[in-house]
Specification:
seven-stranded parallel β-sheet; 21% helix; 438 residues
């Protein structure tokens, strides 16, 4: 019996797949699965298809995987709506990075993961209650590790074992003000490492304003193992992976990545962006580009304090890496196959290979005349020549609604807030930007 017609054909796209494919072609979908990628679909099959999307001049990729976001909406101070801010921008799979701990994980599943169209996976916070009452770190407000009685290796391991279909690892925030002024950081780190080792799942660690050093037996990233994930790679605050180059002369300061970072990468630790409201610096990204130390994974750390700037969404964060010289294919890998492999889902998401779920995103690569200024987290500006914008997205072959940021770029409210943190940076531009008005 002849095959039924295609449900969807994406026509004449520049198909960029992390397997190395980068060429003009078609993508065909039937019954929620990709049937072919790159082959030209015949006119007869086009005529019979339920939907034909003309992607001439556009970029077609696997549905994006955002490895680090906070989507426990209404139940945590940071939570956002995944369908609006993730799926609507081309992200078909999002990993909630520690919003829930073992005691609150059921709520994340029932109220967020199950009803969302976005595929929501989870890293379990080593704290039992996760981020139920915790906002951004570094602001002196306290956090989830203030009492070690809330930090349970056994509970985290048991919760992961009970939820193998959507729990993909563990999360820990190492920041002194989240851990009783740093007193609990080392012990919480040890318990999180133990949980990850026992469950044989990766540990993602946030490391900013921390009492835990980079080096040594209990250092971060020095104690991380192959497959673990160091997030916020490109922040310039205390605990940064970047140091002043001792060879700097006079008033010309040069920066370099530390030996601890390079040694961790050599043994298989993965480095993630985790842009957020404070953890992406143009200065740091340019150091990474110059030294060949750009992140393995590009993620947003999207939450209520950055979803309308300075992160906005994953295509905006991808745009920033195109600007510092990361090739488009490498950028696509960092938001598809690499995070998929990191969480053990490489056989399910992050590829346009035939037989995979038809999670597909289509982007326009805008090239505005004269470029456009885009901010980092401390309101340092760069003029970028190319901007990625999502124009269409399908999840399991079903077309979804595309959304856009309310004020992009240079949201004045977030620009002012970001500029207030500039003086705390250890890695920064030579002088603060002063004219931030559009």
């Amino acid at each position: 019996m002849a095959d039924a017609g295609y449900d969807l054909v994406i026509r004449n796209a520049r198909i960029v797949d992390p397997g190395g494919h980068d060429a003009i072609g078609d993508v065909a979908v039937r019954d929620g699965l990709i049937v072919s990628m790159g082959e030209t679909v015949s006119q007869k099959d086009l005529d019979a298809a339920t939907e034909v999307f003309d992607a001439t001049g556009l970029v077609c990729t696997p549905g994006l995987v955002d490895m680090h976001a906070h989507v426990y909406e209404h139940a945590t101070p940071l939570g956002i709506n995944p369908d609006k801010f993730c799926l609507g921008r081309g992200v078909t799979t999002v990993v909630d990075a520690g919003s829930a701990g073992a005691s609150t994980l059921a709520g994340l599943k029932h109220f967020i993961a199950e009803p969302s169209t976005t595929r929501v996976l989870a890293l379990i916070n080593i704290s039992l209650h996760g981020l139920a009452a915790a906002g951004c770190s570094g602001q002196g407000l306290g956090g989830e590790l203030d009492a070690l009685t809330h930090v349970s290796t056994a509970a985290a391991v048991d919760a992961a074992a009970a939820n193998p279909d959507w729990v993909v690892g563990f999360k820990l925030r190492l920041s002194a003000d989240c851990a009783n002024d740093g007193k609990n950081e080392a012990e919480a780190y040890a318990r999180a490492l133990a949980a990850a080792g026992a469950a044989k799942l990766p540990l993602m660690v946030h490391h900013t304003f921390s009492s835990v050093p980079l080096n040594g037996a209990g250092g971060c990233p020095s104690a991380l193992r192959a497959g673990d994930i160091y997030t916020h790679t490109l922040h310039g605050f205390p605990s940064t992976l970047i140091e002043k180059d001792p060879a700097s002369e006079g008033g010309c300061v040069r920066y370099q990545f530390t030996a601890a970072a390079k040694e961790a990468r050599a043994r298989g630790v993965l480095f993630d962006v985790g842009h957020g409201a404070g953890s992406f610096s143009w200065t740091a990204a340019e150091v990474g580009a110059a030294e060949g130390f750009l992140p393995d994974i590009i993620s947003t750390d999207l939450h209520l304090d950055c979803c309308e700037g300075p992160a906005y969404d994953l295509p905006t964060v991808m745009t920033k890496f195109l600007h510092v010289g990361m090739p488009l294919l490498d950028v696509i890998r960092a938001v598809t196959s690499t995070p998929a492999a990191a969480i053990g889902w490489a056989d399910r998401v992050g590829s346009l290979a035939p037989g995979r779920a038809a999670d597909i995103s289509v982007f326009k690569l805008d090239k505005p005349e004269g470029g456009v200024q885009i901010e980092d987290c401390q309101s340092q500006l760069r003029t970028v020549s190319e901007v990625l914008k999502c124009v269409a997205v399908w999840k399991d072959g079903k077309k979804c609604t595309v959304t856009q940021a309310d004020s992009f770029p240079l949201n004045q409210e977030t620009l002012k807030r970001g500029a207030q943190a500039w003086s705390r940076l250890l890695v920064r531009d030579p002088k603060q930007w002063s004219n931030l008005a559009c």
